[in-house]
Amino acid sequence: MFQEFFKYVIAPIIVGIALKLFSLWLKEKDDNN
């Protein structure tokens, strides 16, 4: 049961952080160009 909680709470947080870092990377890439 804890694994289900972990999967549904931690996974979205990791995805959100990944998207945030990806958007920041795209901004830096655009600035360099």
From TrEMBL:
**Organism's domain of life?**
Bacteria
For this UniProt record, the keywords arranged alphabetically read as follows: Membrane, Transmembrane, Transmembrane helix
Ranges annotated as spanning the membrane: 6-26
- Specify the protein name: Type I toxin-antitoxin system Fst family toxin
Q: Which organism is it from?
A: Lactococcus lactis
Biological classification of the source: Bacteria, Bacillati, Bacillota, Bacilli, Lactobacillales
